[in-house]
Specification:
By secondary structure, the protein is mainly alpha-helical. It has 19 helices and 2 strands. The chain has one domain. The chain is globular, with a radius of gyration of 22 Å.
Length: about 425
């Protein structure tokens, strides 16, 4: 199962950003991998008599119920359904499939190694592959044959056209999208920080610095803001000279790399000017955030002016496909995307899911053995929720798979501890 895990992680980290249309595929490599793994585990479970593949537990029911509320009302009540967008746009279905794949892999881990599943069973392979992804992403900036070859495999597309990395100016990565790669490496940075800060594993400083560099070069505003929030959350009471020196070195390293790369420094200046203006036109609020707020208001006005669409949404593809002449952009917010496609019912379903898992996390925090793990998982989920206010990376490869694993891991540990506590009560009778 270790091989299966590495293959699956490799797929969504390295193949998610490959342009499937360029290579004449009608669905993404990640979708193909999900379906392939599910079929393999289905027949494997029959042959090996693994009943847990077919079991529907409490977490399954929570996720399936939420998916039902996210999809069925909009499909039933809309007369203009774009069924071609069903699988593409209803990403909660993908998250559930990924959750089931991780569940099976790690339950097989438990059988093979005869021990409970550990946090490191997922995070260490993730960090190893993340390091390779980070190096490939940075090499793209180099104006040589290797950089151009990488850009050809993971093309950067703008308005339907492929553009070179040096022209784009921001870190694109192997998963596709600057915000996606920024959010992804933000999460990996804090996983490394968990091992360094809570476990005293100094070797994790190096991947932490590498991932932090990728966050900076992504020039993703939501990633940088959430990264800064996470650092403050962990260290605001525990700052010392060692930690301060580490971040000073990191800052100076980022500044040096940017200043020594003419193209990169140009795009950093351009990005800052675009977001916050210059001279007399300097502003405190990023310009594209103002634009997105305008899009959100347009979506809300359209939804509430069309009967009960605000209640059940506009279905796959959303109202953007129906009213392109009015709304000329995506919501660029995970929450407004859910509202757009599934309405108020979808938002309530989303709140219900996150409430369930944050409740389980609050319980795990009380268990000394899981306290530090619970802190970092809680932080990661909060960062993802912050990032997705003005982003849609929960729909993206990388971030969505990590969230799927965390859903599994939280429920797994919660269930085990509850069973242990109930057994103790039983034994005490």
């Amino acid at each position: 199962m270790k091989i299966a895990l590495y293959i699956y992680l490799f797929v969504f980290i390295f193949l998610g950003g490959i342009n499937s249309f360029k290579y004449e595929l009608f669905i993404s490599y990640v979708d193909i991998a999900n379906l392939t793994f599910l079929l393999y585990f289905f027949f494997f479970s029959i042959i090996k008599k693994r009943s847990y593949f077919f079991e529907v537990n409490k977490v399954d029911r929570i996720l399936l119920t939420s998916i039902a509320f996210l999809t069925i009302p909009s499909l039933v009540f809309n007369d203009k359904i774009h069924f071609g967008y069903l699988f593409t746009h209803f990403y909660p279905i993908r998250i559930f499939l990924t959750y089931k794949i991780f569940s099976f892999i790690y339950f097989e881990y438990e059988v093979l190694y005869e021990r409970p599943i550990k946090f490191s069973d997922f995070t260490k392979p993730l960090i190893i592959l993340g390091v390779f992804s980070a190096f490939l992403s940075i090499i793209r900036y180099m104006p040589n044959d290797v950089g151009f070859l990488i850009n050809d495999i993971w093309p950067i597309t703008s308005n339907g056209k492929i553009v070179p990395q040096l022209v784009w100016g921001r870190l694109w990565g192997t998963m596709g999208g600057t915000n996606t790669v920024g959010n992804f490496f933000t999460i990996l940075s804090f996983i490394c920080l968990y091992y360094y800060h809570f476990k005293n594993r100094t070797k994790y400083v190096y991947p932490f610095l590498l991932f932090s560099l990728c966050v900076a070069v992504s020039l993703s505003f939501t990633s940088i803001i959430s990264y800064a929030f996470g650092i403050f959350f962990i260290f605001y009471k525990k700052i010392n000279l060692k930690i301060l020196a580490m971040f000073i070195i990191l800052f100076l390293g980022v500044v040096t790399i940017i200043s020594q790369n003419e193209a990169l420094s140009y795009f950093v200046e351009k990005r800052i000017a675009y977001k916050f203006g210059s001279g007399e036109n300097t502003r405190w609020i990023p310009s594209n955030l103002v634009d997105r707020v305008g899009y959100w208001i347009s979506f809300l006005e359209l939804s509430f002016s069309h009967g009960l669409h605000a209640l059940y949404g506009w279905g796959p593809g959303g109202l953007r496909l129906l009213y392109w002449d009015v709304v000329h952009a995506n919501p660029e917010s995970f929450y407004f995307r859910i509202f757009n496609e599934a309405g108020i019912i979808g938002i309530i379903a989303l709140i219900y899911v996150f409430y369930q898992f944050f409740f389980k996390l609050s319980f795990l925090k009380k268990i000394i053995h899981f306290k530090n793990e619970s802190i970092i998982i809680n932080l990661i989920l909060i960062l993802v929720l912050i990032q997705n206010i003005a982003n849609e990376t929960l729909y993206s490869n990388g971030v969505s798979q990590i969230v799927s694993f965390l859903i599994f891991y939280i429920s797994y540990q919660y269930s085990n501890i509850k069973k242990a506590l109930n057994q103790r009560q039983y034994d005490a009778i």
